Amino acid sequence: MGDPREAMARARQAAHELGLHPKKRLGQHFLVDHHQLERIARACELQPDEYVVEIGPGWGFLTAYLAERARGVLAVEVDQALAPVLEAALAGYPNVRLLFADVLRVDLEDEVRRAFSLQGEVRFAVCANLPYYITTPIIFALLERARGLQSAVVMVQREVAERLVARPGSADYGLLTVMVAYHARVEMVGRVPAACFWPRPEVESAVVRLVPYRQPPVRVEDEQRFRRLVRTAFQRRRKTMLNIVAAAFEVDKARSAACLQRAGIDAQRRPETLSLEEFARVADCCAP
Ligand code: SAM
User: Fold this and answer.
1) Which domains, from first to last, does the chain contain?
2) How many CA atoms lie within 13 A of 179 on its CB side?
3) 269 φ, ψ to 5°?
4) Which residues are near ligand 1 (CB < 6 Å)?
5) Whose CA is closest to atom 1 on ligand 1?
C-alpha cells in the first residue's frame, strides 16, 4: 500500500507541473491536516472488506486515507481536469477507482458494482468533504435514492451540521432537521477548524455521521402530505400550527383545529416545537 503523506506530496507536485489551482466555484477547499484526515477516515468505521464512495476527491488527500482502510474506494469527481493529479496521488493504491461525473447524476450502487465487477446487491459507505454549494441536494440524494448506502460520514458547513443534529425548540431545528431525521440517525462527529483547509474557507466546518434507517422511525400514511406539512411549517415558522395546517392542506381554520385535536396537538404551538413523530401524526390526522 501507499503512504497518504507521499500521496499528498505527489498530488501537489503534479498540480504544480500542470499549473492547477483549487477552483472555488466547485467548492475546492482541500483538507490538508493529516490528523483531521485520519480522524474522518476513522469515523467511517470501515471494515477491510467494505467499499466506500468518496464524493469529490479533489486532489486525493482523503482518498488515500480511505484506500488504506477499505477494500475498494470509488471516488466520484466532477472536475475532469483533476484526472492527472488524482492518478499521480493514488498511484500506490490499486483499490481506488476514479469516476468523473456529477454525483447527483449517477446511481452509486450501479457505479460501485461496475467499478469493482460485483454482482447482486451492493453495500457501501460514503465519506466526503462535501462541496458546500450543493451539500443539501447531495444529502437528500444519498438518503432518498442511494440503495445500498450503509452510512455516510460527511464534512459540511458548521451551521448545516448544527441544523442536522438540532433538537425541537432550538433555533437550528427546521426543515432539514426533520426531513433528514425521517431517513437517518444523525450524530455529530466534531468540528474542524478553517485553518485545516487549503485554501482556507470563510466558514467553519463540522463532520456528521448519517446512518440510514431500514424502516423510517415513524410511520406516515402519505409521504407527500407529510413533506408538504413540514415544508409549509418551516416556511412559516412564526405562525401557529392552526394556520400552518390550514395553509398546507388548503382547509379552513375549523377543519385545521379539528385535525390538530385528533392528533392531540395544541393548535397554538409553533412548528419548531413539534417532534418528527408529532409532524407525522398531524399529517395522518389531516388526511382528507
Ligand atoms: N475530498 C477533497 C478533500 O477533502 O481535500 C476535496 C473536497 S472539496 C471540499 C469538494 C470536491 O467536490 C471538489 O473536488 C469538487 O471539484 C468536487 N465536486 C463539486 N461538485 C461536485 C459534484 N456535483 N459531483 C462530484 N464532485 C463534485
Assistant:
1) 4-212 (3.40.50.150), 223-285 (1.10.8.100)
2) 23
3) -70, 155
4) 26-31, 55-58, 61-62, 76-79, 102-104, 129, 131, 134
5) 57
With 0.90 as the threshold, say if the pTM is over it.
yes
How many A from CA of 79 to the centre of ligand 1? 8
Rounded alpha-carbon distances, angstroms, from residue 174 to 146, 178, 179, 257, 279: 23, 6, 9, 23, 12
Q: From ligand 1's centre to the CA of 21, what distance in Å?
A: 14
Testing ligand 1's pocket by substitution, the residue of 129, 135, 138 carrying the most ligand atoms inside 8 A of its CB is 129
Nearest Cα residue to atom 11 of ligand 1: 56
Instruction: Give the strand order in the sheet containing 124-129.
Output: 96-100, 72-77, 51-55, 124-129, 149-157, 205-212, 184-192
Ligand 1 pocket test, pick from 28, 134, 196, 205 with the greatest ligand atom count within 8 Å of Cβ, gives 28
288 residues of the chain, pLDDT tens digit each: 689 999 999 999 999 999 999 999 999 999 999 999 999 999 999 999 999 999 999 999 999 999 999 999 999 999 999 999 999 999 999 999 999 999 999 999 999 999 999 999 999 999 999 999 999 999 999 999 889 999 999 999 999 999 999 999 999 999 999 999 999 999 999 999 999 999 999 999 999 999 999 999 999 999 999 999 999 999 999 999 999 999 999 999 999 999 999 999 999 999 999 999 999 999 999 888
